[in-house]
Here is the input.
Amino acid sequence: MIDALHLPLLDFDLGVVREYLFKDIIVRGALRTLWISVLAQAIGVALGILAAVSRNLRIPVASWIASLYVWFFRGTPLLLQLFFWFFVVPQNVPGDFGLGPFQFRHDWFLFSPFQAALIGLAVNEGAYMAEIVRAGIESIESGQMDASKALGMTNLQAMRLVILPQAVRVVVPPTGNEFISMLKNSSLASVISYNELLFVTKGEYTRNLKVIELVTVAGMWYLFFTSVFSVLQAELEARLRPEQERGGLLAILGRAINPPGDWHGATGDRR
Amino acid sequence: MNESSDAMVRIIDVHKRFGRNEVLKGVSFDVARGEVVVILGPSGSGKSTLLRLISHLDAIDKGHIYVDGHRVGYEERDGRLRPLGDSAASRSRADVGMVFQRFNLFPHLDALANVNTAPVHVKGISKKRAVERGTELLKLVGLGDKLHAYPAQLSGGQQQRVAIARALAMEPKVMLFDEATSALDPELVGEVLEVMKLLARQGMTMIVVTHEMGFAREVADRVMLVDGGIIVESNTPAEFFDHPQNERTRSFLSKIL
Here is the structure.
């Protein structure tokens, strides 16, 4: 072979890409990426709601813990947090211990790569979601809380029945962005040996040295996931658009086209 | 801890300040069962604040408020007042119905759900019973055909009538109206006032902050002028409007009549 004009890119073998794109080990890695992202995002949303509500209602102790939580996990790198859960925690829980009424066993803290990655991604995400949910809660006018309390609702009932359902519309768009970031950030779990997409990709190219092809394959999977979720996000946002329920010119136009009785297409008694 | 009295609402020397601004400087009055008291006054005179204190949406700095002999949002222990915790305060608030200037309907719920939510979740009555009662109340305020309309699909007057039905659903002992018609287009004011008159005729105890002099004259048992954080004058509507005793009342009435 004469390779005077041999540029690295010309080494690109489309055949290798075709071979690996749907290869079992790669597809499994891609599905693990998807799975851990969905799980971590779901837990992150729950943590975020807990933290945001604690802070908004100034619940003693809980709001203080929530502030500390957000400060710490937004202020340190995700990669460092993953190291923390995978290397530091298991090695520093010396034995079984009790904390108040709770008993903890040493071996609960010997996290598998999946467990450490899930905890790391979810706990980190929760800190960001806390800020997003807080902005959502603060976007609801104070009259809604006044009306809820005047009807005898407790703070938590007002949150659950009145404030959070309305905050959803403000919270969904940034949460979609967070999830797309999560799909990509989950690749950091490869450094603590969780066999998600990037980890299995590295495993393959270390063996066959087809680096560019395999990195391309991984990139195509990430782009596929993020594209699909971008479309889903746009669709979800369109369904939550506010004109129908807010009043004003858009509502009037909306009602002219779509007569009263339905609310974003839902019929009958929604409760 | 119970203040025995025939009064449905007792307000004793109530003070409230926001920062440096002392909004209420010692307000006292009683409202008898079934009585309708209309409070007039220039904007910023503390009328709305007074209603927010009665419903315990804001804390009292000094003084006492009793509704049907019970404090709202506070308990007296060892001779000292202590604010109740969230859930106890919420229970005590349910006796006081409040209607707001900006309606404050829940935009994500239809009219019936706006009315039903608190009875089901706060009072714990069955959903079936709540639907029956909610439907009755919406019929009472003339919205029997709008049970499943969302707030954005209703006019301001209709929204305020839903808000009145929503407050009534908690079977309050007293209803507070905070400029309930001020945000409405003029042609929609009448329908809300009609509902308020209906409640008054049915014997509901009401404290009404309003600028509707016709309503005050026709429906009120007593009219009060609040200005500068105190009650300037309090009298029957006829005396209040036709023979005002206080110079400030005369000057207030001359500006608005």
Remarks:
- Chain B touches chain A at residues 52, 55, 57, 86-87, 90-91, 93-94, 96-98, 100, 102, 104-110, 112-113, 116-118, 121-123, 127, 148-153, 163, 166-167, 170 (CB under 8 Å).
- Chain B has a mean pLDDT of 92.
- The first strand of chain B starts at residue 7 and ends at 18.
- The two ends of chain B are 44 Å apart (CA to CA).
